[in-house]
Amino acid sequence: MIDFGFDKLALIGAVALIVIGPERLPKVARTAGHLMGKARRYVAEVKAEVNRSMELEELKKMKGQFEDAARDVEQSVQQEVNSATQAFDQTWQSIGGEGSSYEPLPPSYRHPGKKWRVKRGAVPLWYKKQQGVRRHVQSGAARVARFRPSSRF
Predict the structure, then answer these.
(1) What's the confidence (pLDDT) of residue 83?
(2) Is 54 part of any domain?
(3) What is the pLDDT of residue 129?
(4) Higher model confidence: residue 104 or residue 130?
(5) Sorted alphabetically, which Pfam families does this protein's record hold (predicted)?
(6) What is the 3-state secondary structure (H, E, C) of 35-64?
(7) Are 20 and 28 in contact (CB under 8 A)?
(8) Is 85 inside any structural domain?
(9) Average pLDDT, whole number, for the chain?
């Protein structure tokens, strides 16, 4: 920034008082202050934008480094899996003879039985009984008869 001492500011103020006049000097000073504030805010915004772009570039570089590291790890894991698969295949062939390959047996079908829906129920019957959950459908008349108070005359 430009460095102004007290003597330079006093000289500028005296010249402004003579040239502009005492009536308009406060208004001009206010306007000049307002413009200086706008200029400072603009410079601050430009600095912030430059800092953000620098941080963004650094983040992009870090992202590239992390992606490279992830690719390296993925490749090394893939190589280890491939070597383990080859070793397993060689062992399997040596056990089972030439040309044998590992084929899993298909699962055999089993009929679920009569009460398969009950067996697959998520909530156990003891819990339903404890909580008072109705398990069977009742008609309205049956429900009224069940909860009708006993008559004693």
Answers:
(1) 94
(2) yes
(3) 83
(4) 130
(5) TatA_B_E
(6) HHHHHHHHHHHHHHHHHHHHHHHHHHHHHH
(7) yes
(8) yes
(9) 83
Q: For residue 66, give the nearest of 53, 77, 58 by alpha carbon.
A: 58
Pairwise CA distance, residues 65 & 58, whole Å: 11
Domain of residue 139, residue span: 123-147
The 10s digit of each residue's pLDDT in 116-125 is 565 556 677 7
Are residues 89 and 21 both part of a single domain?
yes
Whether residue 82 sits in one domain with residue 13:
yes
What pLDDT was estimated at residue 2? 65
Q: Do 130 and 90 fall into the same domain?
A: no
- DSSP assignment string, 79-116: HHHHHHHHHHHHHHHHHH-TT----PPPPPP----TTH
Q: Is-contact 56 65, C-beta < 8 A?
A: no
75 and 10 belong to one structural domain: yes
Number of domains in the chain: 2
Q: How far out from the chain centre does Cα 65 lie?
A: 21
pLDDT in tens, 67-100: 999 999 999 999 999 999 999 888 878 876 555 5
pLDDT value, residue 15: 85
Residue 140 lies in a domain: yes
Dist. CA 144–CA 138, nearest whole Å = 10
